[in-house]
Design a protein that fits this description.
The structure is a single chain. The chain has helices at residues 3-6, 11-35, 48-53, 55-66, and strands at 73-76, 80-84, 94-101, 110-113, 120-124, 132-141, 144-153. The N and C termini lie far apart (76 Å). The strands form 2 sheets. Strands 4-3-6-7 form a 4-stranded antiparallel β-sheet. Helices cover 31% and strands 30% of the residues. Strand 6 and strand 7 (144-153) form a beta hairpin. The chain is an alpha+beta fold.
Length: 154
């Protein structure tokens, strides 16, 4: 055998080398995506299927909120996020929770119970970073449940 015979590549060898190169290229990116924390993304919720089953209940609560004379509103102030409840309701009978969800970072998510001394609830400015938040107010009045959901930019 001469050097000329060793340097020859036939079609079969070229195709096998191309497949090996392509598979290596793909495996490199699959491994890199799975091991690099930069590409790590969280689920919207850990209990996805449980949340899906509660969806109809949420729809019913939102329908109840549409029947109110006036619904919840919000505004940004220098002190923070002010959530206003309908003025015609008795404060002592309003109870529930406010959930604030940050899509970009689940460590910033929090919930706070509703305790009112007037028809507004203040979420302090230090708890909220500028950007997009999903707000969910799950509340009850006179034994009837209501839900207010909104995507806000703070």
């Amino acid at each position: 055998m001469t050097n000329k015979d060793i340097m020859k590549l036939n079609w079969g060898t070229g195709i096998v080398l191309a497949f090996i190169g392509f598979i290596s290229f793909i495996m490199f990116f699959v491994i890199r995506m799975n091991t690099n924390d930069k590409y790590d993304h969280d689920l919207v919720t850990e209990d996805y299927y449980k949340a899906e089953l509660e969806y109809q209940t949420d729809i019913n609560k939102e329908e109840n909120a549409k029947d109110l004379a006036s619904n919840i509103s919000w505004k940004r102030t220098s002190e923070g996020l002010v959530i206003s409840f309908p003025e015609d309701l008795n404060l002592e009978q309003i109870e529930g929770k406010v959930f604030l969800y940050r899509p970009s970072n689940k460590q910033l998510d929090f919930e706070t119970p509703i305790s009112l001394s007037e028809h507004t609830l203040l979420i302090p400015d230090k708890r909220l970073l500028d950007g997009r938040w999903n707000i969910k107010v799950d509340w009850q009045y006179n034994g009837k449940s209501y839900l207010y959901k909104k995507e806000i930019v703070y």
